[in-house]
Amino acid sequence: MKFAIPFTILPFLAVVWAQDSSLRQVKQAFQAANIPRDLSITFNPTVFLDVSLPQPSGPVITLRAGTQLPRDATAGPPSFSLRGVSPRGPFVIAMVDPDAPTPAEPVYAQIRHFLGGNFVIDGRERFAGPHQLYNSSAAITEFRQSNPPAGSPAHRYVYLVFKQPPGFNEQVLVTPETSIGLFNISGFAEEAGLGKPIGGTYILVAPDS
Ligand SMILES: *[C@@H]1O[C@H](CO)[C@@H](O)[C@H](O)[C@H]1NC(C)=O
Ligand SMILES: *[C@@H]1O[C@H](CO)[C@@H](O)[C@H](O)[C@H]1NC(C)=O
Questions:
Q1: Which residue's alpha carbon is at the smallest distance from atom 2 of ligand 2?
Q2: Neighbours of 10 (CB within 10 A)
Q3: Considering the entire predicted model, what is its pTM?
Q4: Interacting residues of 74 by C-beta distance below 8 A, sequence separation 6+
Q5: Is 182's C-beta closer than 6 angstroms to any atom of ligand 2?
Q6: 38-82, pLDDT tens digit by residue?
Q7: Are 157 and 95 in contact (CB under 8 A)?
Q8: pLDDT-derived band at 8, boundaries 50, 70, 90
Q9: Distance between CA 30 and CA 19 in Å, rounded?
Q10: Is 158 exposed, middle or buried (0-12, 13-18, 19+ CB in 10 A)?
Q11: Which of 81, 95, 118, 135 to mutate to test the pocket of ligand 1 (most atoms within 8 A of CB)?
């Protein structure tokens, strides 16, 4: 009896168990899905990027690299945490779809589903993560739900976190007016001085049937 888990903390445990648990596995999952190649990025994560999506009913879902979610579960908006972090931020977070309109012919890719800067860790949080990321400035590209077109196989939706360089808030390479299609996260990272991503995760989402 004394080992029974109170019912009320089960949803919390379910979230904890679902998140990524090894950086090597995250890196391998990216490689197995050809994400570094298709995004022209070098991906050697040093932190876990935990992306949590609120659900219409039930507990939030924290993404685990490579899992598939029903589209209904991806409405967002996402919240973000880092684990294994040393820098305090600020950070830039991007989400892209390299498979639009279809993985076989991604002629609109990448679609930029989210781009935002000035994510910081609250200074009051203790050293041992997870560290919730807070932002007080509007996203550059506001979050858009995964929306693979009917008939397409599942798309990959990739989240990446970068250290934010000084002066990033003045960049005009991408603004809220910039088309979300034909984006190149690697080219943007290079031109905006973001360097290589320090963490990331991805999910698969198929069209509603
Ligand atoms: C903060 O990030 C969220 C996504 O997590 C985004 O929707 C929002 O526009 C950003 N800015 C503010 C002020 O909330
Ligand atoms: C994206 O940018 C990178 C770096 O600038 C470049 O190597 C790559 O070819 C670009 N990809 C596309 C599809 O243009």
A1: 187
A2: 11
A3: 0.90
A4: 53, 145, 146, 157, 203, 205
A5: no
A6: 999 999 999 999 999 999 889 999 999 999 999 999 999 999 999
A7: yes
A8: very low
A9: 15
A10: buried
A11: 135
